[in-house]
Amino acid sequence: xxxxxxxxxxxxxxxxxxxxxxxxxxxxxxxxxxxxxxxxxxxxxxxxxxxxxxxxxxxxxxxxxxxxxxxxxxxxxxxxxxxxxxxxxxxxxxxxxxxxxxxxxxxxxxxxxxxxxxxxxxxxxxxxxxxxxxxxxxxxxxxxxxxxxxxxxxxxxxxxxxxxxxxxxxxxxxxxxxxxxxxxxxxxxxxxxxxxxxxxxxxxxxxxxxxxxxxxxxxxxxxxxxxxxxxxxxxxxxxxxxxxxxxxxxxxxxxxxxxxxxxxxxxxxxxxxxxxxxxxxxxxxxxxxxxxxxxxxxxxxxxxxxxxxxxxxxxxxxxxxxxxxxxxxxxxxxxxxxxxxxxxxxxxxxxxxxxxxxxxxxxxxxxxxxxxxxxxxxxxxxxxxxxxxxxxxxxxxxxxxxxxxxxxxxxxxxxxxxxxxxxxxxxxxxxxxxxxxxxxxxxxxxxxxxxxxxxxxxxxxxxxxxxxxxxxxxxxxxxxxxxxxxxxxxxxxxxxxxxxxxxxxxxxxxxxxxxxxxx
Length: 519
What we know:
This protein is 53% helix and 12% strand. It has 519 residues and is an alpha/beta fold.
């Protein structure tokens, strides 16, 4: 199909200014005839012909076989001027059938030109072969040929316009669905930005899309926080816009924000969104070679804006809900740690270390975030353990130890009935983070990979932080002693792969511990 050069094909009702613009992309015409003279005369007559500021480019085939080769590699032929009788009496008709049925090409206009009308009756040919016009070569004068070009190219243009606008609507729907799928606000805004770039780059090659620059921002006070970015702006995420963007770009954001509407210009566009919560977001995309958008394209982008605006509001609501849930989880985890005289940021450090280890082991980001949210509840079952046992200064006797071990089952039972995915993971972690790689753990003596990966990861994170932190009953261990302990317990208490990952990422883990140090 013909490749137009904008968001959607230029509509048949485009304004006079656009009609006056001269495009460098020609209309492609395929002449299929076994007579050289027909090719020469056709090209001569149409040598200076232009339609909507675009010249003609001719492909030449002297048989149906040659035409098939051209058509199989070029899907942007606007018109085929087709002879009927060539290598066989019905070669042209068979070629028309090939175009419509095998290539599934409903866009290219096909005009039969024959010097032997009796070979192919006009009415049956047009009805049976999806031919657009039928001409006797003797009646096709220079004037009539030019008139034919106007009618066929106009028809082709309008069909392509409808198809491109249909594709545009499909992309709007598809884009809206994709941005609703994203979990975090950062991922969501990045998805919205990517979908906008895809919409603006429709029918452009990949290099065009890659050279676009864009950013998504949230209005805060008298500035904007950059939520996601690409191209020239990809290094400035999370930074204030006023101090990082040029005055020109900042003023463009301000203009859209003040007007509370989308702005479309030749080299950039700004989309404005306001949620029911009062949050204001803007998307900015720039390129040095934008094709001016027509009214249809702007309307379609307005539809995309409306859908994205609703999605922005949902994303903020989801972020607020998850922040509340995370805070509750941390409070529960802290309550358990406080009761067992293990105060501070232990559960937060375990959460962050667990997430880091999971990502380093190839767990996808969404599940790693679930692990981070779930791991603070790993010792929730300790709320059922009597103070005398939980905070005993000396070593627990056998009976006390059996009671202490029940906290894994208690935590699991408390969380397992939840329908929330995070709490389901928390149930697994509570149940299995005291299992050992060698099968000597509790409560079920699971061995190796039978222990859920999240249980194995949390076990490493929990013990590492316990050894690395100051507790009321011990000082922090030096790092060389901690490393020696994990090496000794690798393949026994801990999954050897996780131990390796732990120390491969020890610098980042130390940074986590420093940022979340106990106060």
